[in-house]
Design a protein that fits this description.
The complex is a heterodimer of chains A (435) and B (252). With 435 residues, chain A is mainly α. Chain A has 16 helices and four strands. Chain B is α/β, with parallel strands linked by helices and 252 residues long. In chain B, strand 9 and strand 10 form a beta hairpin. The relative contact order of chain B is 0.17. The chains are: A mainly alpha (435), B alpha/beta (252).
Chain lengths: 435, 252
């Protein structure tokens, strides 16, 4: 045992990674995807959705610096998003009226600086405690700021908010930022830079110590670190990036209002981060894209879309607590050992009854909605393009059957899939020694 | 450095939990470079004493001097930064971090990287080298990639010592480093402790008398929060009060 214990040990972290492609391959690919996307999804709706996604990716990543990296559950992340947005709007208005020659592209920086400054102020208070006390303080700060937003009408613009005009600034390289596509590329660049910066942060001594504090704050003290300082820096930097996201949102919408810094917005970012997965850097990215997509797509189809969100969130927390990224990460060893084909059929087998159960459930929700909310429209409705009466017994029977049978079959298939996964994992371990 | 003050000195140290006084006026001076063992029956307050010295608990009275400087009631990280590092009796590691990351995190402060958020941690060659050395020292090099929470009990105990020694502190507190280990593992840990404590001051709690008499230059016997004897192993063994209170049961 002791003989192999001298270098060169295969696989020890080498300090210097291989080629440029190995190190930056993912980032180059991400940049290419960001550049090409608006040409693939060229519709106005898609462009709007993608602008929103880019903003939310930064926001969710900034939140995960706290939740996933440092183990801090904050209920007030939107405070920094909103304040960053307001500062950006005011900075733009001042620049426009005063003729300050600054191009639009740099204005998210005002949001970032505001986020950082308020992160420092509120962080100095809230990061004195960890755990539940920290969570409660952030909740208090969130309430404080949202109520101030309605009192300080001059700055926050009351219920209507404050508007701005993104086209009125200096036009660098002829960019007016009138067309949405130009705003898309502005957001894409900021999203890329911010994500890269936040990723780089996880690879620094500070980033690793954040993880240590998350895992075991007590021991962190006994290796020299003041956990309060770690939390404080993490909180402040998180505010910086949330502020940048808010600045981009302000540029995108050309309006900022109190709702953007409220508890609902803070809840949304928790939802995104959690659904995507807190344990992995890409988790919040996946979550931001998925939740934004659902917000846009679902709100188009049904007016009780928030109900589906709640159900999705509960379902994720119960069944997939490490989120979509965690689910994907668990397939990685199988993929590397070429064992994925052994479990894929089981996943497909679970998917069919799962979808049936969801169909049954949403049918019941929509029928209830039709009977309870849309009383004046009568019972006639359509679900998945099939017309029927919501007060007839047959649709209810169909829905209940779908839900019950689907759930039962899904649970059985899920158990089989889990079994197949364990076997495939054992097989991959046997093939390529070690996890 | 040439200060004549002992590496660690406890003067009239007291700790109360409510009405219960666990540490009842402990006086102890450990000169620089000594290997000192604290023994005593269960509930004597040995771990409490360690918690006081390392800053986990705040003393109710008395003082703790680290090379002459009073550190009583200071936060753990401040005591650590003055050159005192410790291990725990109940394994206290970073369970989700890899073995490698556990040890590297424990090297970072002493290497001066502190809260640095502008350097790539993978490029810190000195931290890497030190991490590798420590892992070789505690025999966990081939487990470096594993999350620390997945190590076996004995491996976690080894990592626990690794975290304590990674920062190169010159005063080392080890709380039952061989607890729950097999004979062979104990021997390996003893030789490890002997090696790492060569140019350092060592204070350890240990139940295994073989280990204590093997390693310690001096032994203090703690009974009901008081040091009833503090002497060389030979004299402690011969001490009647000690025999009655403790050794009689364990060694006879």
């Amino acid at each position: 045992m002791s003989d192999i214990a001298r270098p060169p040990l295969p696989g020890l972290p080498s300090g210097r990674a291989g080629g440029v492609l190995a190190t930056y391959g993912v980032w180059i690919a991400a940049a290419v995807v960001l550049a090409v996307l608006p040409h693939v999804f060229a519709s106005g709706l898609a462009l709007t959705a993608m602008c929103l996604m880019g903003t939310m990716i930064i926001f969710a990543l900034s939140y995960n610096m706290l939740l996933g990296q440092t183990g801090l559950l904050s209920f007030g992340q939107a405070v920094f998003f909103g304040l960053g947005g307001f500062l950006t709007v005011h900075a733009m208005n001042v620049a426009e009226s005063g003729g300050v020659p600054l191009p639009l592209a740099v204005f998210p920086l005002f949001g970032g600086v505001a986020g950082l400054a308020f992160g420092v102020i509120f962080g100095a208070v809230s990061t004195r405690r960890a755990g539940t006390a920290f969570a409660m303080i952030t909740l208090g700060v969130a309430e404080l700021v949202s109520s101030s937003a309605l009192i300080l009408r001059h700055f926050f613009g009351g219920e209507e908010g404050v508007t701005t005009d993104r086209t009125g600034l200096v036009h660098l390289f002829g960019l007016t930022f009138g067309p949405q596509i130009q705003v898309y590329y502005l957001i894409a660049v900021w999203c890329f830079v911010s994500a890269a910066a936040m990723y780089a942060l996880t690879c620094t001594p500070f980033g690793r110590i954040c993880n240590a504090v998350r895992d075991n704050p007590e021991r962190a003290g006994f290796i020299g670190y003041d956990t309060q300082t770690v939390r404080f820096i993490s909180f402040s930097l998180s505010g910086l990036f949330a502020g940048i996201a808010g600045g981009l949102a302000a540029i995108n919408f050309e309006i900022m209002n109190a709702a953007q810094l409220g508890l609902a917005q803070s809840g949304t970012v928790i939802l995104m981060t959690y659904i995507g997965g807190v344990g992995d850097f890409v988790g919040p990215i996946i979550g931001a894209i998925l939740v934004t997509y659902l917000q846009v797509a679902l709100s188009d189809v049904t007016d009780v879309w928030q109900l589906y969100f709640g159900l999705l969130f509960i379902g994720m927390v119960i069944f997939v607590p490490d989120g979509i990224a965690g689910l994907l990460a668990r397939q990685r060893p199988l993929l590397l050992a070429r064992q994925l084909h052994r479990v894929a059929p089981f996943y497909a087998l679970a998917l069919v009854p799962g979808l049936a159960a969801i169909t049954g459930l949403s049918m019941m929700i929509e029928m209830t909605n039709q009977l309870a909310v849309h009383v004046s429209d009568g019972p006639a409705m359509a679900f998945l393009y099939v017309p029927f009466d919501a007060d007839a017994p047959l649709p209810w029977l169909v829905a209940a059957t779908l839900l019950a049978a689907g759930t039962w079959l899904f649970l059985r298939a899920a158990r089989a899939a889990r079994h197949a996964y364990d076997e495939a994992l054992a097989a991959s371990r046997a093939r390529g020694r070690g996890p | 450095m040439t200060s004549p003050a002992p590496a660690l000195e406890l003067i009239g140290l007291r700790k109360k939990f409510g009405a219960m006084e666990i540490i009842r006026g402990v006086n102890l001076a450990i000169p620089s470079g000594e290997r000192h063992a604290v023994i005593g029956p269960n509930g004597a307050g040995k771990s409490t004493l360690f918690h006081l010295v390392s800053g986990r608990y705040r003393p109710s009275g008395g003082s703790i001097r680290l090379r002459g400087e009073d550190i009583a009631g200071k936060a753990p990280q401040l005591i650590y930064r003055r050159g005192l590092s410790r291990s725990f009796q109940v394994t206290n590691i970073f369970p989700r971090l890899s073995v490698w990351e556990n040890v590297r995190c424990a090297t970072l402060w002493s290497m001066g990287y502190k809260y640095s958020f502008w350097r790539n941690v993978e490029r810190l060659a000195d931290a890497r080298r030190r991490t590798e050395e420590i892992l070789a020292e505690i025999n966990l090099l081939d487990r470096w990639r594993l999350p620390a929470g997945m190590l076996t009990y004995a491996e976690q105990r080894a990592l626990e010592i690794g975290l304590a020694i990674a920062g190169n502190a010159d005063i080392l507190l080890l709380d039952e480093p061989t607890a729950g280990m097999s004979r062979a593992e104990t021997e390996r840990v003893v030789s490890l402790i002997r090696r790492v404590s060569e140019k350092r001051t060592l204070l350890m709690i240990e139940h295994d008398m073989g280990v204590v008499f093997d390693l310690a230059d001096r032994i203090s016997v703690l009974v009901y929060g008081e040091v009833i004897a503090s002497d060389t192993p030979k004299r402690v063994k011969a001490n009647a009060a000690v025999q009655q209170a403790y050794l009689g049961i364990e060694v006879a």
